[in-house]
Write a structure and sequence with these properties.
The protein is mainly alpha-helical and 288 residues long. It is built from 13 helices and no strands. It is globular.
């Protein structure tokens, strides 16, 4: 077993043990979760389903940068299928599956797709960082965002960056940026509702900083859904968002349960409708 898989299993096991111990020694966490209304849980599930729709927009925008257009239904199925693989599969293998599938079926240039994916990661990291530092500089975050956006646009158009993006159609970069911003804002809304459900005293500003820290944890994680890493980031950034460990743990238990539920529903839909066979057959035809 490769060292990364061993490390991932170790982190998952350690996180599960730590969560269980904390949950057993802090009964107030269970009490907090038990008070959450069913309507709130239903709303959160719908919002998580909406995040899949936003991922479809992001995937569509990424393919536009690669000058590849495919049917919307195929993009939606591929997004759902790779999301399930990304969570339940080894080492967040969803992006790799998409790349292999697109290469086999459409002969997509993998270097172009990798570069387009990096552009997406840039926007995701940028917006998430703005959310995080908003706890330090307040309303100046808006000014900094505008300045950074202008500088980023200048870099994209510059002679230094253009050669590295020459294989991409960057005319629609703003579409990807908008979809990514929508994703970050939607996750912020989800986290805010979850935090409010656990502790009504949590403010919008705290939720924004919390969202930034939770999102940035994805860049250093190799476990499904950044399990273990996200919790560590949130605890380390406690001085920025000022949310207690008990609320962080309870919120993350709630969030994990909701997300796993959505992934399981997606998996039932994909395999129940045998949509997965579409990808397998397409790959075989492409190889043949």
């Amino acid at each position: 077993m490769p060292w990364r898989q061993i490390a991932a299993v170790t982190v998952l096991a350690g996180t599960a043990i730590a969560f269980t111990y904390y949950f057993m020694t802090h009964p107030e966490v269970g009490e907090l979760l038990g008070k959450i209304p069913s309507a709130t849980l239903g709303l959160l599930l719908l919002l998580y389903v909406a995040t899949i729709g936003v991922l479809v927009l992001i995937f569509t925008a990424t393919l536009r940068l690669c000058r590849l257009k495919i049917e919307s239904s195929e993009i939606a199925l591929l997004t759902a299928y790779s999301s399930v693989i990304n969570f339940f599969g080894p080492l967040q293998s969803g992006p790799a599956f998409r790349a292999v599938y697109l290469f086999k079926k459409y002969k997509l240039n993998l270097k172009s797709y990798a570069m387009a994916t990096l552009v997406y990661y840039f926007f995701f990291g940028f917006f998430s960082s703005m959310f995080l530092v908003s706890g330090l500089i307040g309303w100046w975050t808006l000014v900094l965002t505008v300045v950074a956006a202008v500088v980023s646009y200048g870099l994209i158009r510059s002679r230094w960056i253009v050669p590295r993006l020459r294989n991409l159609d960057m005319r629609g970069w703003y579409y990807l940026a908008s979809a990514t911003l929508l994703q970050v804002c939607l996750m912020g809304l989800i986290y805010y509702i979850e935090l409010q459900a656990v502790n009504p005293g949590i403010g919008v500003g705290q939720a924004i900083v919390y969202t930034g820290a939770a999102n940035l944890a994805l860049f250093v994680s190799f476990t499904p859904g950044a399990i273990g890493f996200r919790e560590a980031f949130l605890l380390f950034s406690q001085q920025l968002h000022d949310i207690s460990p008990s609320v962080i743990i309870a919120t993350n238990i709630l969030d994990r349960a909701l997300y796993i539920t959505v992934m399981l529903l997606l998996a039932v839909f994909i395999f129940g409708t045998q949509a997965n066979k579409r990808f397998k057959s397409s790959s075989k035809k492409a190889v043949g």
